[in-house]
Amino acid sequence: MLSWFFEKDKKQEDLIRASQCLHHCLHKFFSTTNKAFDILNSHLNGSFSHISVNESAGIKENCAEVSTAISKIREVTEHTDRLVQKSLEPHLYNKITLSGVSLQEKAEVAKELNQATMGILGGICGPIAAVLFTKSGLENFVSLDDQLTSSPVWSLTVADLLQSSRDISRLLCGAKSQRASLEEATRSLEEVQGVLKPACEAFDDIVCEVKAYIKLITEKM
Predict the structure, then answer these.
(1) Cβ proximity of 85 and 93 under 8 Å
(2) Which helix (H) or strand (E) holds 207?
(3) pLDDT, tens digit, for every residue of 177-199?
(4) C-alpha dihedral sign at 155, 160, 161, 165
């Protein structure tokens, strides 16, 4: 009996950790999306308004809002990317997405592009940001809500993730035994987290890279 109490505490901790991690991941996805909006508003004449997590809405609905926002980012950046391709020689265009090179080399590429375009594309930061976003695989983030359509976690609101382990397990598993419901609820949360967390981190890496490149350009030009 005593061992079950210790085991139950561990299972409750696992459930709370999984639910809080998923809650944090959702908020980070929105925050990263807003950073991308800021880049487009500053350098591509965008007019995007920040989005925020709706705690009272479902997790699926919030994921769908992020997917819609990323689709809009793709639309704007792909349009500019096509203009850049038409305006630059292929060898110059290909240099924009240089990977594994030093920041100094990237700065030199930006200077070369600026001299080659002579203002045709406006400021150089916007076109470079557009190309980087376009080539980063944003299409991988626009259907996240479709990857886990059968998950019971979709029935939760974001605010539910902050409830007690007992309440979360009841919401996800109904009237099953406490031991079984804690384990099943944790597995369900970790399954969704296993899809959203890597995607969130990858998207954040993309946005951070674009921001760093733009900062480099503005400092070196």
Answers:
(1) yes
(2) helix 178-220
(3) 666 688 899 999 999 999 899 99
(4) negative
d(CA 205, CA 212) in angstroms, rounded, equals: 10
**The two three-digit tokens of residue 2, written as one number:** 């005593």
Q: Where in the sequence is the domain holding 74, given as residue range(s)?
A: 2-220
Task: Report CA-CA distances (Å) from 59 to 106, 115, 148, 172.
Answer: 39, 47, 11, 13
Give how far the C-alpha of residue 40 lies from the chain's centroid of Cα atoms, to the nearest Å. Answer: 16
Number of domains forming the structure of the chain: 1
Six token digits for residue 150 = 């059968």
- Phi, psi values for residue 91, rounded to 5°: -65, -30
Report d(CA 128, CA 150) in Å as an integer.
39
The contacts of residue 104 (CB under 8 Å, 6+ apart) are none
Q: What is the pLDDT of residues 149-182, one digit of tens each?
A: 778 998 899 999 999 988 999 999 876 666 668 8
DSSP 44: S
Distance, in Å, from the CA atom of 7 to the CA atom of 13, rounded to the nearest integer, reads 10
Give me the count of residues in the chain: 221
Quote the tokens at residue 112: 């070369």
pTM of model > 0.70: yes
Q: Phi and psi dihedrals of 122, rounded to 5?
A: 75, -150
